[in-house]
Amino acid sequence: MKVKTSIKLMRQDFEGYRSFLIDIQENATLLDILVKIKEEMDQSLSFRSMCRAGVCGTCAIKVNGKAVLACSTKVSIFGEELVFEPIDKFVVIKDLVVDHDPIYFKLKLRRVWFDPRKENIKLTEWELKKTERSHECILCGVCDSVCPVLEVAQSFAGPLSLTRYQKLVFDKRNANLEQKTYGLKDMNPQLCTHCMNCSYACPKKLMPEAIIKEEESLLVEKGMLIKDTGGFDFLGI
What we know:
The protein is of the alpha+beta class. It is 32% helix and 16% strand. The chain has 8 helices and 7 strands, in the order E-E-H-E-E-E-E-E-H-H-H-H-H-H-H. The strands form 2 sheets. It has a 5-stranded mixed sheet, with helices on one face. Strands 6-7 form a two-stranded antiparallel ribbon. It is elongated. It starts with a strand and ends in a 16-residue tail after the last helix.
């Protein structure tokens, strides 16, 4: 069954929002709406999409104030009035397209990649489970877009980088566990306020806040961090 849906899209060319009224199937995704508008109503609309399967992370947008993946989010959860905007904290290139270069810059800066040992190391099921969330991060940027600490503390690496980094300090197949642990200290996971925004927003349900908490605990255990249990003065608020 088709439903009539009111759409408002943030458009740079129009210096604000442009409105559309379209008929869409009840089980349609947000990406279906964007494709329909671009193909039938406004070919100048810009957005990103590649896999259509919630894997590549390129279609991250904000709808009715909520950061989501357009390809894997149903229209039905929002109702009949939708406001499409680019995700926060990223430079907008055009319309719903944001610049993802800062994501890759941070990963390169922190050398967030795996250095496998030469020998074959078997892991238990529990050990594999420990780091699977870190391996499954799709770099969509949704978690960083909702993180309040990134607005006030530039030394905080952010939930995306810290999620990707977790496997480097907990997966014993990594050849540089000790070196990466010192690298983790420089990413300042203790600046996280544990507001849970990132965990609520993560489209893959990876629970970045819980990962950051594990990383903090590791640094405390190794005597590399004394956790501040006071207020938020360290953020400079």
